Structures are given as C-alpha cells and as structure tokens.
Amino acid sequence: MEQIKIGIVCYPTFGGSGVVATELGKALAQEGHQVHFITYSQPSRLDFLNENLFYHEVEFRSYPLFEYPPYELALASKIVSVALNEGLDIVHVHYAIPHASAAYMAKQILKTHGITLPVVTTLHGTDITLVGKDASYEPVVTFSINESDGVTAVSEDLKRETLEHFKITNEIEVIPNFIDLEKFKKQKKDHFKRAICPEGEMLIVHTSNFRKVKRIQDVIKVFYNIHKEIPAKLLMIGDGPERVLAEQQCRDLGICNDTRFLGKLEAVEEVLSVADLFLMPSEKESFGLAALEAMACEVPVISTNTGGLPELNIQGVTGFLSNIGDVEDMTQKALQILDKKNLPVFKQNALNRAKEFDITKILPQYESYYARVIEKTKVRTPH
Fold first, then answer.
1. Percent of the chain beyond pLDDT 70?
2. HSE of 212 in the Cβ direction (CA atoms, 13 Å)?
3. Using one digit for the tens of pLDDT, what is the confidence trace for 307-353?
4. What is the pLDDT of residues 41-79, one digit of tens each?
5. Which residues form the domain of 322?
6. CATH number at residue 335
7. Residues 50 and 26: beta-carbon distance below 8 Å
8. CB neighbours of 370 closer than 8 A, spacing ≥ 6?
9. Nearest to 279 by CA among 198, 333, 316
10. Are residues 217 and 326 in the same domain?
11. What is the spatial order of strands in the sheet that 301-304 belongs to?
12. How far apart are CA 307 and CA 157, in angstroms?
C-alpha cells in the first residue's frame, strides 16, 4: 500500500502500551511508512536507525505558577507542530489518558489551519480498567474515545469492559497485541541453563512490574509448592513495589538459594529461551503480552482466567488457566506441564499459538484500519 505518514503518541516506558507502540512504529517504518514518535523521551525499544523513523520530543518546562507542568497542553502543541511541518496523514495515540484528549485538542487547532487530522486511539487496559474509571477522569475519557476517528482495543475482554463502564457511541475494533518472532524465539543458551540449573532442575520464570495486581506472592507460593515436589529454580524478572515483600517471603519459606531476582532486563528473550514454565497469576491482564513473549520462546503458561488471558492462553493446550488466587490448582497444573512426558507437547503448542500473533499477521490489520479511517474522514470533511 502507499506510504502513510503516521504520528505515534505513547508512553516511552517499559510498560506494555509503550512497547507495543514502539514495535508497531518500527514495523510500519520497515514497511515503508513514515513514522513520527511524539513523546517526552525516546521510547525504550526505539533502538535502530531507519530513514522512515523520526522522534519529536515534547518539552514541558516548569514555571513557579504550576505545581505540575501541563504536559497535555505541551503534547497538543507538539502534535500540531509535527502535523503542520511533516504533513501527517493520521495520528495514533496509545493509552487514552492524556493522549486522546491532547490529540482531540490538536485536531481542533489544526482545523483552524484548514487541516483534517484523523485520530486513532488504542486502549491498552489500565487506561480503562483503573485510571479511566476514576470519576475525575471518566467524562474526559468518554469524550475522547467518542471523538476519536477510530478506536481499537487489544482484546475482546477490554472492548467489553470499555462498553460496560463508559457511554461509548463509537465503534471499537479489536486488534490484538503482537510479537516479533524474529526477536522473541528460543535461542541456544544451554550454557546459561547449566549455570542456573546445574543439576538439570526445571526453570520457572515470572516477569512483570511487581505491582499488587500481578500477585507476586502467588508466584512465590506456587514455586514453593512445585519446589517441594521436584527440583526447580525460579527467576523473577522486573522490579516494583512488591519486590521487597517477595524477597522476604522467599526467606521465610527457605527457598532463597533457588530463587533469583534479576531486576529489569532488556533481553528478556534470552532468559525465556531456557525456561520450562511461565507463571502469570495476575488479578487483571487486558491481554498478557509477557505471556505471549514466553510462548514465542516455547514456554508454556500457567495464568489466571481473567481479562484477555483466556483469549491467548488455551486451556490444556498452551498451558492452563486457574481462578485468581487458586495456588493449589496452579501448582497441580504446573506439575502436570513439567512432567517430562508432557512438556515437549506444551512447548510446541505454545510456539504454534504465538505464531498466530506474529507482527507480520497483525501489522496489515493496522494498515487497513488506518486506510479506512483516513478514507472515512475524507468523506466527512466538507470541501
């Protein structure tokens, strides 16, 4: 398809929405589209040079008058500037707050210049399930979603929840999260496995931002139960407020020697390459990107049956789903997967499932969605 000039607005952090936005932008640039990232610092995975990739920093200064600098206004101004100077065809904002409302403001300003800038908003999860439900934000979130020219959600469950809790008059298209199978794949890291599991122990992995919603203590409990039955090691990747409690829990249970906290890692795929099982006992996951990354590296998943996880993790095929907090069920299912007779089949199934979410399959969905939104706004715009 012909080149589109796309502005991408996201949080430049390790969180799911930032990662998805960055990977999407990189893939679009490789397809020949011109991609302009608009955010307050360079996204953490924007790590290669491409003639179609551009980065525009949103600068917002502190003034004595403001207790908090008005980021939303600075962002709206930057969107206007990039749209005028680069001739954007569309702007794609990830995470509703405050990006969708800033894009709406930019759109109105551009109208005074005789320019129509279509806005696509992608809902990722906590912008709806947590922040958006806050009564002080709800009217703005509802308005911004309804005023967007296109709205996507990363799972059917998130779409359902959005429609349930907000008065949405707009259509919501589900385009799932994706994986780059060139990057996330099982690598030959046998020396690494031997270093961590010298006696051939099973290797369990968890990765998250260690917030309460991730139920880190359930990860430790499930591992403790597995550890009582079979030789096993646990790697905890990530960092956050629950880490100190989790470390204390390991000490209390006497499993410190078999548990390692690795902190934040860039190359998480290297660790996943040697893992036998991935644990995700979260209270809420709108999609479960970390689980998809594990599956792409041939790691079966034990997860809860909440949010978008049942759309990704197939019961008894790629792993198992349990009720939130059901540590006994997770343990039993984990031991079933780790049985040497069963493990190879689960590993192969996990990879097969991940292939359905390869970026090469999802990218065309975004491209055709952009084209439809641009066409729709042209029709609506009076000449």
1. 96
2. 1
3. 999 999 999 999 999 999 999 999 999 999 999 999 999 999 999 99
4. 887 666 667 789 999 999 877 777 777 778 889 999 999
5. 190-355
6. 3.40.50.2000
7. yes
8. 4, 6, 89, 90, 92, 120, 150
9. 333
10. yes
11. 259-263, 232-238, 202-208, 277-280, 301-304, 319-322
12. 6
Q: Report the domain count for the chain.
A: 2
Task: Note the pLDDT of residue 383.
Answer: 45
Average model confidence (pLDDT) for the chain?
92
Assess if residue 203 is contained within a domain.
yes
Compute the distance between CA of residue 192 and CA of residue 186 in angstroms, rounded to an integer: 13
Strands 90-94 and 53-57: unpaired
* 236 shares a domain with 281: yes
How does pLDDT run across 137-154, given as a tens digit for each residue?
A: 888 889 999 999 999 999
Tokens of 220: 């430790």
H or E stretch at 300: none
Query: Would the pTM of this model clear 0.85, i.e. be above it?
Result: yes
Q: Which residues of 198-223 are buried (b: 16+ CB within 10 A; e: fewer)?
A: eeebbbbbbbbbbeebbbbbbbbbbb
Mark whether 214 and 326 lie in a shared domain: yes
Both structure tokens of 278: 């991935």
pLDDT mean over 224-237 = 97
Give the contacts of 253 (CB within 8 A, at least 6 positions apart): 220, 224
